Amino acid sequence: MRGQRRLPLEQIIGRIDRRLVYAGLFLITLAPLVGRWALPLYVTPPPKMLADTINALPQDKLVFISSNWDAGTQAENRPQMTVLVRHLIRRRLKFASISIGAPNAPQLANAAIEQAIQLEKVPWVYGQDWVNLGYKLATEPWLRSFVRQIPEAVKEDWKGTPVDQIPVMRGVQKFGPDGQASMLIDITGSATIDGWYRYLSPTGVKLGLGCTAVMAPEQYPFLDSGQLSGLLTGMKGAAEYEQIIGAQGFGTTAMAGQSFAHLYILILIILGNLSLVLGWLERRRRRR
Amino acid sequence: MWTLTGFKFILAIVGAVAGAVLLLAILHQASHQVKRTLTIALTFIGGLFYFLEFFIPPDPKTEEAVLFGWSLTQAAEVVGNATLVIGGFTFLLGVFSLVHIHGNNVRRRRPGWSYSLAFFAAFLVMTVFAFWKDWQTWFGGPAAPAWVNDQNLAHAAMPQDVYTLLFEGLVRNLDATMFSILAFYIVSAAYRAFRIRSGEAAVLMVVALVLMMGQVPLGMALTNWIPSDGPWSGLRIESLSQYVLTAINAPVQRAIGFGLGLGALAMAMRIWLSLERGTYFGQEV
Amino acid sequence: MTSPFSFGGAVIWLGALATLALYSVLYRENPIYRFAEHIFLGLATAMGLYMTWKTVLYPTWYKELVAGHWAWILTLVAGGMYYTIYSKRLVWMSRLVMMTMMGLSAGLGFRGFFGTYMKQIGASFKPLVVMQHTAAGGVDVGGSVFASFTNILFLATMVCVMTYFFFSFEQKNRPIRRTASAGRWLMMIAFGAMFGSTVMARLSLFIGRLTFLFQDWIHLIRS
Questions:
Q1: CATH classification of A45-248, choosing from 3.30.1330, 3.40.630, 2.60.40, 3.40.50?
Q2: Cα–Cα 20 to 30 A to A278, which of A200, A244, C104, C192?
Q3: Number of Cα atoms under 13 Å in the Cβ half of residue A120
């Protein structure tokens, strides 16, 4: 139309309405999930290390899962929890879940464990093969007491049943080579692993971690020093672990959505910078 | 002496509270200097307790730190529980503050006061149904009806009561959604603010992009034409991103960690020895 | 779509409507979002109260007290001292109890430092020359060079970043200034990695919500 000034290209690509950007993210992430587009995933060393550690655990000792995630990070931590429990069940390793990071965590952990048992289709009996020890506020003294003498720190399960009446907990006194608990895996959306580093790590007990992707880069020094025996990074870590043990789950499906969302962000960053460069070129042209 | 029943128990409770209040009342009359000295002394003793408990070599048999025949390790458990309980009592401080703010909003009919009413309604409903559910377990009395505490084993996975409806239906979903909204903001920020304006920003962006693509199957597909076990496998995007994480990110994080750790240690020393200055440390009380 | 006329269905519907109410802010600020936000605040505060009683005060305090351990009542007095923060005259009591708690935390700080960082200090002493061997027993030259380079890079990065944070004296010396500057650039690489991971984390949470809405609620995604 005559009289209407055409917007320069850098303004068109540099000022897309945020709602359009949001709508794009929504559609681009949803499409692969609806279409169930399966993409091959390469397994990185940290989850492989965790799987190898679990494969080497003795079957007569208990594994502790410190389930410290709640609704806020369930999308990342729940698939980690489910796939790890599936692996433990396949290896016939009895386990105890204990929460120190979020008061709601035992309820969510229970649902994830039940789901894993259902997916594995084996009888894995509460009390005999696994137990949910509920939530304990992780003060420094409690952590110390838990590492030193488990029954002193944990007296009942999440429903109030005394631990000496729970078969899977009978005789479980402490961690370590002469103890009855072989490993602790922290699945967390907060900084609970710091407590385990402080108290469990000096005892030489195997420590595994499934954390949100935000937290993962900070954990690599601990992987390097051997304080961690393996690491799952967010949903991707769960997907890799599903691949390692050959158990497709939520993580694998979700990675397609994650892939396209990353591609979308990459395009947006390029567009943003392109508009910056075009604007700069335009200003230089005008100055001349 | 520490465990009493019946009348003696009630007498001990009343006596302990009265004694504590009397002591505080006497201290209240004391000068600022006395109060300050007392604060410094208690801070020092508190720190010294755990300091000794950590540095005294444990008895090889009992694995406990013992000082003059007194097991510091066992005492630490009691002290730990006491601090836990004292901390628990302070939770009401936060509740009090929220109730105060929203109460004022409603009382003065400030703009948006109806939202404060919604806050109170949600707070009251959840408090009532959560406490009612477990009331009998804690304090005895009549059992709550099934719609308040569903104990039907057939519903073990999801009890059909009001608390579960509120928790599973609202709390869990609202919590997860609040966190997930950040995805939109980070996308918007990546588009609007992530601009290369310096060399450092360029490095940050390139690494971020390699990481983002190296962590997802679609990114991995970009370089999957490179054999995964040959000498060039290190050039695959997932290998590059893993290398950045282990060879550069890890030492950076470790160095930052050392800085933080030493800083925290120095801060702990300053607090312990009352060398710190500021609102809670140097000012008159 | 899930029917709302069962308990499980009602839970899903309630969750879906709450999710949509919060997402409505993405379009623009509106009363529905504000209402949902305040409902969340109220519910979360009540949950905090309930969980504090259930997991801390009931098992550690109330149960001990009713078992006849009368001295536990003193923790109520100490907890009550925190509340004097609102009174100008009595505020010294809150400082007394706060500082005692801080003293205790400071004492625990020693254990925290040694427990977390001692192993890390040990692990930082990496060999600068690494010899790797092939399956046949010979020296793997390529592998050895690469492993040695990685260790040198690791150490150099650590030293550079630590130098950057060395504030005890002014960094006038040129080599130190350059090392610190390299530390800043290397930190940018780590921050890039952190940004990439943060993006991944936030998107995972969004995917979790999409799965709830389109799998559990309206069954568009097949499970």
A1: 3.40.50
A2: C192
A3: 23
